[in-house]
Amino acid sequence: xxxxxxxxxxxxxxxxxxxxxxxxxxxxxxxxxxxxxxxxxxxxxxxxxxxxxxxxxxxxxxxxxxxxxxxxxxxxxxxxxxxxxxxxxxxxxxxxxxxxxxxxxxxxxxxxxxxxxxxxxxxxxxxxxxxxxxxxxxxxxxxxxxxxxxxxxxxxxxxxxxx
Length: 163
Hints:
By secondary structure, the chain is mainly beta. Helices cover 13% and strands 44% of the residues.
């Protein structure tokens, strides 16, 4: 398992962050596990506007975020036309680990991993083909008890280790 330093020019976290900054639109299905929950969300991002369609644990919920108005619109069930408008700081719409919708994009995740890397170790765990592209599996672990947003270890093959 090769070790990569944070200041290495081929640091995969830094490369991913640089590439992310050039992206204006993407969509992804996020699967997030922790010791007490599993979430699956279809996630759409376009110029800081966010749409999240929940698959698990509550299918049918749709959440949209408008960065200009800094507000979230929440539709609980698709067959009902009722929409609730909330602040992104509202605890009711934060993830089980406390993440807010306005900090939920891939760039925010990479920022957390980069901060963890600044006081931790980064390992290249191997390569994997994902959607026809070669990717590197990267594991980042904080030194000692170091955490960022409650995360001590990021390993895409397992649960995020929270402390």
